[in-house]
């Protein structure tokens, strides 16, 4: 408040062991986050604030947040956001909170599932449909992909944060597309862990879709749906041949704002030397830290093609004398190595064993990118 009175923009500060970041939204709500994590960055904490405010808008609408008439009522309404907000604060197996892209799964039965989803969504009087497992998208309609990246991510995280239920009729506000007028989010559990979601208007009724459409469209494909659960953690089938030295992978499709993320890159890791392996928690931390470093320092926003990964204010300025932007970067430590690559369509981040030769990382990254752009298109 002192800085604002002096016309000074101050967005963060640090104590001996804590980083504090804050941001005001619509001159109405100020959110403050405090983190004692050693690797906490301004980028990740600002993204957290954006996600928390987006979650608030998604559940209760922008009007309630910008035109506050009763503070006590607002506090009560905000309780419905707590589980979604908590999911952003806890360690998660997904990466969408940081990338602002929806986490996806590559499945061998995509064509069958996509056809069923398109038909089911159309029969439900909607153009917006999605099939997801554990907060990761298996298939989605064309119009679903046209929603804003943060909206798609928030919808997936919302469904994953709710207690399992056979069906739901949940009012949601789209933070960018419809922040003041609610839509209906219909969800149906096909098998434990897999939900189909439809974004629609006043019709049809939940009962009609559940009794007349769900079994009709999805019962014939229950086996392919169940098989998706086997690849959910890895995010792609075991038939995808990754280099044995890769421990973690993050691939971002910049056109569709979707990502492929795993820290369990190999189906049978027991075959590998355990002394060379990081724990799953360490892998997640290492990959998130490297992504933050690369995005904020090297893979900066593109002004020429309109693709902006993050706000310019969170990017670090290249040292004077560098007029170009990097397209590849890497880090080396005693426990692991990381390699990042940027192309017009993709961002690729790989986490390697420490014994992988540094000179070979570029070739492995190129081969991995070719794998997911041609052999298993993503």
From TrEMBL:
Domain FUZ/MON1/HPS1 first Longin: 1-87
One example of a Gene Ontology biological process annotation: vesicle-mediated transport
Keywords noted in UniProt: Cytoplasm, Cytoskeleton
Domain of life (superkingdom): Eukaryota
Entries under InterPro entries matching the protein: FUZ/MON1/HPS1_longin_1 (IPR043972), FUZ/MON1/HPS1_longin_2 (IPR043971), FUZ/MON1/HPS1_longin_3 (IPR043970), Fuzzy (IPR026069)
Gene Ontology CC entries for this record: cytoskeleton
Signal sequence residues: none
Domain FUZ/MON1/HPS1 second Longin: 125-218
Residues of the FUZ/MON1/HPS1 third Longin domain: 246-374
Locations listed in the record: Cytoplasm, Cytoskeleton
Similarity-based family: Belongs to the fuzzy family.
PANTHER family: INTRACELLULAR TRAFFIC PROTEIN-RELATED, PROTEIN FUZZY HOMOLOG
Protein name: Fuzzy homolog isoform X1
């Amino acid at each position: 408040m002192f800085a604002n009175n002096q016309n000074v923009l101050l967005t963060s500060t640090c104590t001996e062991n804590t980083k504090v970041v804050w941001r005001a939204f619509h001159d109405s709500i100020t959110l403050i986050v405090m983190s004692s994590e050693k690797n906490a960055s301004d980028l990740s904490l600002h993204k957290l604030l954006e996600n928390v405010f987006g979650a608030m808008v998604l559940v209760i609408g922008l009007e309630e947040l910008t035109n506050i008439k009763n503070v006590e009522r607002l506090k009560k309404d905000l309780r419905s956001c707590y589980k979604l907000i908590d999911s952003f604060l806890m360690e998660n197996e997904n990466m969408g909170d940081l990338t602002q892209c929806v986490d996806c799964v590559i499945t061998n039965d995509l064509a069958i599932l996509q056809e069923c989803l398109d038909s089911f969504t159309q029969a439900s009087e909607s153009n917006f449909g999605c099939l997801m497992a554990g907060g990761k998208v298996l298939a989605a309609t064309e119009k679903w992909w046209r929603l804003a990246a943060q909206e798609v991510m928030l919808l997936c995280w919302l469904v994953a944060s709710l207690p399992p239920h056979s069906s739901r009729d949940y009012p949601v506000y789209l933070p960018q597309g419809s922040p003041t007028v609610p839509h209906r989010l219909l969800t149906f559990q096909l098998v434990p862990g897999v939900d189909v979601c439809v974004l629609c208007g006043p019709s049809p009724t939940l009962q009609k879709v559940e009794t007349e459409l769900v079994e009709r469209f999805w019962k014939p494909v229950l086996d392919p749906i169940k098989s998706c659960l086997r690849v959910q953690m890895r995010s792609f089938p075991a038939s995808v041949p990754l280099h044995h030295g890769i421990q973690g992978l993050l691939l971002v499709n910049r056109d569709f704002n979707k990502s492929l993320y795993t820290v369990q890159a190999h189906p049978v890791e027991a075959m590998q030397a355990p002394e060379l392996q990081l724990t799953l928690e360490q892998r997640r931390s290492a990959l998130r830290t490297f992504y933050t470093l690369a995005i904020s320092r090297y893979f900066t926003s593109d002004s020429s093609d309109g693709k902006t990964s993050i706000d310019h204010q969170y990017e670090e300025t290249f040292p004077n004398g560098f007029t170009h932007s990097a397209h590849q970067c890497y880090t080396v430590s005693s426990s692991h190595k990381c390699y990042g690559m940027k192309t017009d369509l993709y961002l690729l981040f790989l986490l390697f064993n420490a014994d992988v030769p540094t000179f070979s990382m570029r070739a492995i990254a190129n081969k991995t990118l070719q794998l997911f752009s041609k052999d298993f298109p993503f």
